[in-house]
Amino acid sequence: MSHIISDVVNTVSDFFPVKRFAALFPAVATSPTIESVISPPSVDMSPIIRLAGLSGAVAISLGAYGSHVLRDNPSIDERRRTAFDTASRYHLIHSLALLASPAARFPLVTAGLFTAGITLFCGPCYHYSISGVETTRKYTPIGGVTLIIAWLSFIL
């Protein structure tokens, strides 16, 4: 486009004795410079981001295990399947929340609370679903409260 405008300006200036016509419009007289506008993302690979990635990968892996192994196993009752589905869903959702922890005012506190909450809530649910042993289920409410506190730590 600027090439066409430049040609028109040169043709017009040849017919008319206005030599400084191009000087009035410096953008037309010179070729445009192209700058790179895209910059690399400013997010660093902090340990919290890496932990969130690991937690998400574990959540997906355990979810795949549950859908392929536990779902088709006739010895697993519905209560254990439901516990596994709940653990898998909460694990993945809170892994995403862990990914947002660096944006909190106290990122280490928030990330620590999410990590503890995932471990204390999802861990016993996974354990119960896979083994059928109910001894670790008493830690699930502690994990749930820890997850609530982790969410509230975003407003500090």
Automatic annotation (TrEMBL):
GO terms for cellular component: membrane. The lineage of its organism: Eukaryota, Metazoa, Ecdysozoa, Nematoda, Chromadorea. Belongs to the TMEM256 family. The chain crosses the membrane at residues 48-70, 106-127, 139-155. It comes from the Eukaryota. It is found in: Membrane. This is Transmembrane protein 256 homolog. Coiled coil: none annotated. Keywords: Membrane, Transmembrane, Transmembrane helix. It is a multi-pass membrane protein.
